[in-house]
Amino acid sequence: MPGYLTRQQRIRLGDLDYTIRSLSDKQQFSDPDGRAKRLGISSAQWSLFGQVWPAGQLLANAMATFDIEGKRILEVGCGLGLASLVLQRRGADVIASDMHPLAEPFLAYNSALNDLPSVPYRKLQWGVPLPTLGRFDLLIGADVLYERPHAELIAALVGRHALPEAELLFCDPGRGHSGAFTRALALQGFEVSESRGALDEDEPETLRGRLLHYRRRAADGPQ
Fold first, then answer.
1. Domains of the chain with CATH codes
2. Residue 81, by phi and psi: left (phi above 0), alpha (psi -120 to 50) or beta?
3. 131: exposed, middle or buried (C-beta count within 10 Å: 0-12, 13-18, 19+)?
4. How distant, in Å, are the alpha carbons of 104, 112, 165 from that of 108?
5. Distance (Å, rounded) from C-alpha 205 to C-alpha 183?
6. Which helix (H) or strand (E) holds 87?
7. Which is nearest to 48 in space by CA: 9, 99, 110, 8?
8. Which residues sit opposite 16 in a β-bridge?
9. Helices (H) and strands (E) in the chain, counts
10. Do the Cβ atoms of 55 and 199 come closer than 8 Å?
11. 65 with 44: CB under 8 angstroms?
12. Can you give the pLDDT at residue 206?
């Protein structure tokens, strides 16, 4: 038996229902070989990858209708990978990425639960270059700006992995670091537009979720 408990949830993403295996609560922890500790994941943070977060649902809903034709897509800090599952169902060229040791097996399990091929996955630490990952037309992420240093880390990751005409779509629940992220991306030629979405299905009129859509001109891209 694993050292953690799970549950299955039925979640509406776009216009379809998905079955998602997640951790049963935020108190779960299992790191018998110390892999998470070596990656800098504390016991308090360990369970966060395995939760269904409102921002993740909002991003997945956006991916149900987003223009993906001809685009190579990277989900940053995927956790359970809701957005990647939606994109996989749509036939997108998508790679999910995270650094948590259990993100990949949970993603594969959830792909199978929903009769989908496994979503391609790469282990990606935001501050560690991974040249073999290549560059992308669209980078997405949900609630990845939850600590102050993440704005600079993810902006640098964008610089390494975004094509000159790439788009970015990040969902921010309002943790206060998106301004620094936007300023860092402006140095790379990105401009932002913002839309709002509901984070609480019980209060759909409360549009607290921010979808930050970044674009730049090809001439502003890295040489």
1. 6-220 (3.40.50.150)
2. left
3. exposed
4. 6, 6, 31
5. 29
6. helix 82-89
7. 99
8. 13
9. 6, 9
10. yes
11. no
12. 58
What pLDDT, on a 0 to 100 scale, did the predictor assign at position 122? 98
Cross-strand partners of 121: 96
**What are the φ and ψ backbone dihedral angles of 19, each rounded to 5 degrees?**
-95, 125
Tokens for 80? Answer: 């359970």
CA distance 223 to 181: 22
Q: Are 193 and 169 in contact (CB under 8 A)?
A: no
What's this model's pTM, rounded to 2 decimal places? 0.93
* pLDDT score of 80 more than 90: yes
68, two tokens: 């993906």
Say how many CA atoms lie within 13 Å of 152 toward its Cβ. Answer: 2
Closest CA to 171 of 86, 63, 65: 63
